[in-house]
Amino acid sequence: MERRCVQDRRFGNLYRNFMKEYEDLKHMTLVTCSTTSNQSTYLPHHGVLKESSATTKLRVVFNGSQRTRTGDSLNVHLMTGANLLPALPDVLLRWRQHQYVFVADIEKMYRQILVHPDDCKFQTILWRHSTDDEVREYQLKTVTYGLACAPFLAIRTLRQLATDEEEQFPRGAVALRRDCYVDDVVTGSNTLNDAIALQTEIRNLCLAGGFPLKKWAANDERILTGVPSDHLLQQLPPAWEGESHSTLGLRWHPQHDQFSFVFHPHAAINHTKRTVLSETARLFDPMGWLAPVVIRAKILIQSTWLQGLDWDTLLPPSEARE
Q1: For residue 113, which phi and psi values (nearest 5 degrees)?
Q2: What is the separation of C-alpha 252 from the centre of its chain, rounded to a whole number of angstroms?
Q3: Is 248 in contact with 181 (CB distance < 8 Å)?
C-alpha cells in the first residue's frame, strides 16, 4: 500500500487523511507496552476509491478474511449473527406509500459503536503516517468494516437504541426498526406536519445514541425544518442535473420526486458470454423497473448456453450485434 501511495500521490493523500481522521477521532489508538497482547490479530488494509461519493472519496477497508499460511482467518472464528436486514423491495415500497418522504444517512455508522476493550486486540493493524516514521501498532476501537460480524453488530445496536428510547420517541423508534437499510433511513408521512414531527423525532433519537444523521433530502423542503444546513445533501455536479441522492442503489431526485438510473457501459471490443453476464449484473434494479431491458440481456445469456459456448468464446456476429 505504501508503494501505491507513492506511485499515486492523490491516492496516497486520501489514504493518509482517512487514517489521520481515524486516529484523531480515537477510532484507533496507538498500542503501548501496557496494552500489548500475545493474542493480537493483525488485519491487512487497503483503500477503495469511490469517485461517485459526495463526501468520502476513499474508504480504507480492513480485511478480516485474509488467510494466514495455515489457511486461517479472523472471520472464520467470528459469529456472523442473524441477518437483520429487511427485504430491500419492502423498504422501498413502504417508503413510497407516503406523500411526504425524506431520507438521511447515519454518519460513520459502524464507527460510532465501541467494541469491548477486551476484543480490540483482535483488531490490530500496522501503520505509519510517513515512510520516515517507525511502523507502529494500532488497535481499532470501533465496529470494523470488513469483519464478518460488523453488519449484525451495527443493526442490532440500532434496534437496541430504538427499544431503549421508545418511550420518549415512539414514532422515531418504529421508523428506526422498519425504515432503515444499513445506514440509510428512508421514511415519511402522509401529512406535512406529521413528516416534520417524524423527522425531528428520528434526529433526536439517533443523537441520543450517538448516531448523527447527515445528507438529508426530502421531496418538500419544509420537511427539513430544524436540520442544520451543513447536514443537508449538497448539490452534486453537474449543476443542471439538480440535487440528487443515491438511495439504495437508485438515483432519486428530491426536487421532482423522480427516480433515474445512471449506467456507464464498458467499451467491450470482444463480446463473450462472460462480458454479457458481467454487464447484466451491473444493472441494479431491486424493484424490477428495468425488466424490459434486463430480460433482453437474460435471453441473450440463455442463447449462449443453448449454443454450448464457453465463457470466453467470442459470440457469433448476430449475438455480438445484439
Answers
A1: -110, 120
A2: 17
A3: yes
Contact 50, 61 (CB under 8 A): no
* Cell representation of residue 246: 443515491
Q: Are 252 and 287 in contact (CB under 8 A)?
A: no
Residue 6 CB-density burial (10 A; 0-12 exposed, 13-18 middle, 19+ buried): exposed
What is the number of residues in the chain? 322
For residue 117, say if its preceding peptide bond is cis, omega within 30 degrees of 0.
Answer: no
pLDDT digits (tens, 9 = 90+) for 160-210: 999 999 999 999 999 999 999 989 999 999 999 999 999 999 999 999 999
Q: In angstroms, rounded to a whole number, what is the distance separating the alpha carbons of residues 15 and 47?
A: 7
Closest by CA to 203, choosing from 283, 104, 274, is: 104
pTM above 0.85, yes or no: no
Contact partners, residue 12, CB within 8 Å, separation at least 6:
4, 5, 6
3-state secondary structure of 148: coil
Alpha-carbon gap, residue 158 to 248, rounded angstroms: 18
Amino acid at 210: G
Would strands 213-218 and 184-189 be described as parallel, antiparallel, or unpaired?
Answer: unpaired
Helix axes 192-208, 150-164, angle to 10 degrees: 110
Residue type, 52: S
User: First CA to last CA across the chain, in angstroms?
Assistant: 42
